[in-house]
Design brief:
The complex is a heterodimer of chains A (446) and B (321). Chain A is an alpha/beta fold. Chain A folds into 3 domains: 53 residues, 3-methyladenine DNA Glycosylase II, Chain A, domain 3, CATH 1.10.15; 247 residues, TIM Barrel, CATH 3.20.20.20; 119 residues, Rossmann fold, CATH 3.40.50. Chain A is built from 17 helices and 17 strands. Chain B has 12 helices and 10 strands. An 8-stranded parallel sheet of chain B has the order 8-7-6-5-4-3-10-9. Chain B has a two-stranded antiparallel ribbon with strand order 1-2. Chain B is globular. The model of chain B has no long low-confidence stretch (mean pLDDT 95). Classes of the chains: A alpha/beta (446), B alpha/beta (321). At the A-B interface, α8, α9, α10, α11 and α12 of A face α1, α8, α11 and α12 of B. Iron/sulfur cluster (SF4) binds next to α2 of chain A.
């Protein structure tokens, strides 16, 4: 929560001594509110004021790190409730829940799956990036053994148990990997918080409702454990979504610091489709760690993709990789249509080409994610870069003719492009919806 | 709970309530009519306001056999797709569709180029075979739609169908038809709040009531632009709750149509050996698209796969609990 200048001013000495370089304390407060200066420029500010100001300028949702090294998961530090207001910054961990009663072979298979569960979408790897060990056997050795095996997969681990002895046992071998202890309840919190403190691990906290949860986090913070995660459940879809939204809103809009932590959901719903739907919803609605009992790739892929999509920065257009794309059973004689690398533009063109059932190539030029008209107007789509694309090895190797279909909106480019490239330039439809008809009627083959 | 009360956001507006279908009392023949919209809160946030009506799960039916739908989809639907009336009946009776969305794909000049009368006959057959509300969607060729839709509108007069779609550039013919025959309208605007508003203003300036309008802001499938749809719908919902009447219309999403175009839904096991079971992968994709869009504020979900419909109905049930 950004402090207003007047709130800051109230905490300053109000002597207008100018030592900070500002004519008045109020001027200094205004600069500080706009983050154009730092508090240490005023040598006279009291320690109490300093503490108050620093506390107030801490992020409303604390940044929590689970795991260590390159694979560590950072969640929290979010600033908005709706992605269009700015962006969501820290994509949630998505992970599978591994029970501690598996046979050795089943466990080994799970661990292997974990390490290899990666998909490539639009040139980016998307993967499971956290794993939970679930205390179902009620046996410290089984829990510790499973935890050690899962930790070996190289992803951050969540230890799910409310039994302090079993948690302690599992932490003997895994604490150095900074797992998330999940966790503290109104019943066990003193012992579990002490464990989190001594092992320096983040701690997930659960309670029957948000009031009890806020009360509990305050008690735990008072013991010196500050890296907390709110475990808001995950079985009851409606209740979980309401808790996720309320916690985020209270932290951001009502300055409820006791709920200023990222959230965690564990979905054990038996029906796989209901489970996946719930997980997708939790990803969209702020959950920082989304744990599921699903393990099949066809069920995990959509959840990972929701994360990829919802956590893209709406201020930056999404781009597809520039290059030559083949749609359908193309031959060297297939038509070649030109478009830009703005993802929506590309997907629209791709969809229409596919729907036409006429095999064709789509040439994608890097226009920094702008649409055809914008790219042309800002010279990001011009005879030079189109010619460079036409001269690329890929086009030379796959396209056996020299006819390019240009988006109708930029027909004015035909002349210069023809001169520059030597290709025959055909003017295609203005809107993608005309592509199908164009390919079936105007395009007469190479 | 104290904190839940502190978390309440006080909204000044609500989504317009729109009735789909007309029963005998209202001059139609539907035995089930549905109300959509009406929410006075962000989606499913019961602690801050009411969500009086559950999102509608509709199923898409075509006026011709959709031969290019992916294999898992065609296999699940079976031979009924050869007969629109039978297809629609199966959707309602076996899969529990709340409404039918009849797409007049075969009227397109590049497809069957069927006549307005042929299309109207399909509309009548589907109405006769089902008792749920009907959504009728043209072939998205303005000229042809302007020939076909008025005839279909008349064939369904009094049934309070939902007809689509009008755009900024083409609305007068369909508005007039819906006005004459007592139907509701879908306004189409591709992910743009201002255009959405503009369409609603143009239509209401013709004297068409807002409580008979639904918005289609186009649907991006998961992985293929869903984030744009998500944010546009979320912004629309916020505007509506902030008492912007011209944005307070329920929203329809063409989930099945878009989701089944995704590679993730269509690819065979040979093409993508690491993506899991190819028979269910598309169902998950369709369902995930729908479940995610429900969180942004969506009122009518048009689906294709029977299993995705069943699962989505379960999700809606859990959300409305
Ligand atoms: S140095 Fe501190 S006390 Fe002096 S004018 Fe600046 S803000 Fe005020």
């Amino acid at each position: 929560m950004a402090l207003k200048a007047l709130d800051i001013f109230k905490l300053l000495p109000k002597t207008n001594c100018k030592d900070c370089g500002c004519p008045t304390c109020l001027a200094f407060a205004m600069k500080l509110a706009q983050k154009q200066t730092t508090l240490d420029q005023c040598p006279h500010v009291t320690d109490e004021s300093k503490a108050a100001l620093e506390g107030a300028s801490a992020p409303p949702v604390r940044l929590i790190k689970i795991g260590t090294g390159a694979a560590a998961l950072e969640i929290g530090n979010e600033t908005v409730l709706f992605r269009h207001e700015e962006t969501f910054y820290h994509p949630p961990g998505i992970g599978i829940v591994i029970p501690d009663d598996l046979s050795e072979e089943a466990l080994a298979a799970q661990v292997e799956k974990l390490a290899g569960s990666k998909f490539v979408r639009v040139g980016t790897d998307i993967a499971i990036n956290v794993a939970a060990v679930d205390d179902v056997a009620g046996d410290a050795d089984a829990f510790a053994r499973t935890a050690a095996a899962v930790a070996s997969a190289g992803v951050p681990v969540v230890l799910v148990s409310s039994d302090v002895d079993r948690l302690a046992k599992a932490l003997e071998q895994t604490a150095s990997g900074r797992p998330l202890i999940c966790g503290a309840t109104p019943e066990n919190w003193e012992a579990v918080a002490a464990l989190a403190k001594s092992e320096r691990c983040p701690l997930a906290v659960s309670a029957p409702d948000l009031d009890a949860l806020a009360e509990l986090t305050q008690k735990i913070v008072a013991t010196g454990v500050e890296d907390l995660v709110l475990n808001v459940g995950g079985e009851d879809l409606a209740a979980t979504l309401q808790a996720l939204t309320a916690a985020r809103r209270l932290a951001l809009k009502k300055q409820v610091r006791a709920l200023g932590y990222p959230s965690l959901t564990i979905c054990r719903i038996e029906d796989p489709m209901a489970n996946m739907s719930a997980c997708c919803s939790y990803v969209a609605k702020f959950s920082g760690v989304v744990l599921t009992t699903l393990t099949e790739p066809e069920a995990l892929l959509p959840i990972l993709t929701v994360r990829q999509n919802i956590y893209t920065d709406p201020r930056k257009p999404i781009q597809v990789e520039a290059g030559l794309y083949a749609i359908g059973a193309v031959t060297p004689d297939s038509a070649l249509l030109l478009t830009t690398n703005f993802s929506l533009t590309y997907y629209t063109v791709e969809g229409e080409v596919e729907a036409s059932r006429v095999p064709a190539y789509i040439g994608v030029v890097d226009t920094e994610g702008t649409s055809v008209l914008t790219a042309f107007a800002s010279d990001k789509l011009n005879a030079d870069n189109v010619t460079a694309f036409l001269n690329s090895d890929d086009v030379k190797a796959k396209v056996g003719h020299r006819k390019l279909i240009l988006p109708g909106y930029i027909s004015v480019m035909s002349g210069s492009l023809h001169e520059e490239s030597g290709w025959e330039v055909m003017v295609g439809p203005r809107e993608a919806s005309g592509i199908s008809k164009y390919l079936k009627t105007v395009w007469q083959g190479a | 709970m104290k904190l839940m009360e502190t978390a309440v956001e006080k909204w000044s507006g609500a989504i317009q309530e729109v009735t789909l279908g007309a029963g005998a009392d209202a001059g139609g023949t539907r035995t089930s009519t549905i109300k959509v919209g009406g929410a006075a809160a962000l989606p499913f946030m019961d602690f801050e306001g009411v969500t009086p009506n559950a999102p509608v799960v509709a199923m898409e039916v075509w006026d011709c056999e959709p031969t290019d739908w992916p294999a898992p989809l065609r296999e699940a639907l079976g031979d009924v797709v050869k007969d629109p009336a039978e297809w629609a009946r199966t959707c309602v009776e076996e899969y529990g569709a709340d409404a039918i969305c009849l797409k007049l794909a075969n009227t397109h000049p590049d497809e069957g180029n069927t006549s307005p009368q042929e299309a109207a006959a399909v509309v009548k057959a589907v109405l006769a075979a089902t008792s749920v509300p009907l959504i009728i969607w043209g072939c998205e060729n303005d000229e042809k739609d302007n020939d076909v839709m008025p005839v279909c509108s008349q064939a369904a007069a009094g049934e309070r169908c939902l007809l689509g779609a009008v755009t900024e550039d083409n609305y007068k013919t369909l508005v007039a038809a819906c006005q004459a025959d007592g139907h509701s309208l879908i306004g189409l605007s591709p992910i743009d709040i201002n255009i959405a508003k503009q369409v609603n203003i143009l239509v209401s300036e013709m004297g068409f009531p807002l409580d008979r309008m639904v918005m289609y802001q186009t649907t991006g499938a998961l992985g293929y632009g869903i984030e744009y749809t998500y944010s546009i719908q979320e912004r629309g919902r916020l505007a509506a709750l902030g008492a912007d009447k011209m944005m307070a219309l329920p929203v329809i999403c063409m989930v099945g149509q878009e989701a089944w175009r995704a590679k993730e839904a269509k690819a065979t096991a040979e093409e993508q050996p690491t993506w899991g079971n190819a028979d269910t992968r598309g169902v998950y994709w369709e369902l995930a698209t729908a479940a995610t869009l429900l969180q942004a504020g969506s009122d009518i979900m048009v689906m294709r796969h029977p299993d995705a419909v069943r699962a989505l109905k379960g999700v809606v049930g859990n959300l409305m609990k």
